[in-house]
Amino acid sequence: MIEKLNTALSKAQALESRAHAQGFLEIMQQRKTETEAASKSTSIEVQTPETPLEERTLEPMPCKPLLFDLAVLSCKYPDLKSRLPTKRWGLWF
């Protein structure tokens, strides 16, 4: 009797796993048909996270140049020599 119950339990577990897998496959098929319908209705391609990377359209983009401040080269800075410490001469300095 215990052997029959173990057999029935393993069959039930197998059928439960199969039902979960079939439900997952149906959901994935439904999402695929929805994205195909959306891409056909609009000119913009809908890319979902489920779309494999090889099917996504990769487009080259120009890189933005860095901002260089060229005005610094034409600026005249004040003379700061007066702020430098002076050399001291003498016995105590």
Secondary structure elements and pairings:
Layout: H1 2-41
If helices are DSSP runs of H or I spanning 4 or more residues, what is the number of helices? 1
Gross morphology is elongated
Helix/strand structural class:
mainly alpha
Radius of gyration of CA atoms, rounded to a whole number: 38 Å
* β-strand number: 0
End-to-end Cα distance: 110 Å
Mean pLDDT: 79
Query: How are helices and strands ordered from N to C?
Result: H
- How much of the residues is beta strand, in percent? under 5%
> Sheet with the most strands?
none
Helix fraction, binned, reads 40-55%
- List the uncertain runs: none
Give a verbal description of the structure.
- The protein has 93 residues and is mostly helical.
- It has a domain at 1-48.
- Helices cover 43% and strands 0% of the residues.
- It contains 1 helix and no strands.
- The protein has one helix at residues 2-41.
- The protein is elongated.
